[in-house]
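Lab notebook, design round three. We kept the backbone fixed and only want residue identities now. Task for the bench partner: fill in a sequence for the structure below.
Input structure tokens:
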């Protein structure tokens, strides 16, 4: 598996974690006054971490691709 695919997978994981945060908040907060109060704020933290890792992998992949192309 190359770095570009790994970066794409991490970005997908980040999107799933981010959307699951709001889905869980909607389920938990159905009928409450403040629906976006959720005790599972760590989902957002893990989503941001996965996004940073994914973007880093994509940047490294593109950097290596252009260096390889420049040498040829």
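Proposed sequence:
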């Amino acid at each position: 598996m190359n770095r570009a695919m790994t970066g794409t997978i991490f970005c997908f994981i980040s999107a799933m974690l981010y959307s699951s945060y709001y889905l869980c908040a909607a389920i938990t907060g159905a009928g409450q006054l403040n629906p976006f109060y959720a005790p599972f704020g760590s989902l957002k933290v893990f989503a941001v971490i996965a996004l940073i890792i994914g973007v880093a992998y994509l940047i490294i992949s593109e950097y290596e691709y252009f260096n390889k192309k420049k040498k040829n």
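Keep this in mind before ordering anything: The helical segments are 3-28, 42-71.
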